[in-house]
Amino acid sequence: ANTALFARILARTAGVDSVLELGANIGANLLALERLLPGCGLSAIEINEKAAAEAKRAVPAAEIMRQSLLDFAPQRQWRLVFTKGVLIHIDPDMLPTVYETMHRASSRYILLAEYYSPQPAEVPYRGHARKLFKRDFAGEMLDRFAGLELLDYGFAYRRDANFRQDDITWFLMEKR
């Protein structure tokens, strides 16, 4: 399912030779990207030690940086920078920091694959409050950065018989 999703998204890109994922968990997205972009420089930020180790086992060639994305200060740029199911767990007050980091780290493309809501909404998450938020993450980034343009968007549905994902909406943006 991840390979199919990223194939669809990458069809609208060109020259993606380096990728940074913020919040890689166990590396499932990196594994799909490794299949689709052989030889691509894959990097990721992951705060959880066990998940970072699993991501490194899944994609040995990937550079896995174990730290919080809130503390990450990129020293270089990647052609594509993305999150998938990560921004929804960031405190809304910290989103501007993450947006700035993503914009600074990207040399061309930014991908957000998250739960979408036209209005910010908090959703109970596994019995906890203030752990999951839906909003128009892409719209906020487009409003924040003048040179950022929406290139494509789509929806992945949990009931898709062939390529099941969570109910996420993805937005591919390009720096112009």
Structural write-up:
- The protein is an alpha/beta fold and 176 residues long.
- The chain is 27% helix and 28% strand.
- The protein is built from five helices and nine strands, in the order αβαβαββαβββαββ.
- The protein has a seven-stranded mixed β-sheet with strand order 3-2-1-4-5-9-8, sandwiched between helices. Strands 6-7 form a two-stranded antiparallel ribbon.
- Helix 1 (2-10) packs across helix 2.
- The longest helix is centred in the middle third of the chain and has 11 residues, at 95-105.
- It starts with a helix and ends with a strand.
- The model has no long low-confidence stretch (mean pLDDT 94).
Shape, per Cα inertia axes: globular
Q: Numbering strands along the chain, what is their spatial order in the largest sheet?
A: 3-2-1-4-5-9-8
Strand content: 25-35%
Low-confidence stretches: none
Order of helices and strands: HEHEHEEHEEEHEE
Question: Which keywords apply here?
Answer:
5 helices; globular; alpha/beta; 7-stranded mixed beta sheet; 176 residues
Question: Quick recap of the structure?
Answer:
With 176 residues, the protein is an alpha/beta fold. It contains five helices and nine strands, in the order αβαβαββαβββαββ. The strands form two sheets. The protein has a seven-stranded mixed β-sheet, with helices on both faces.
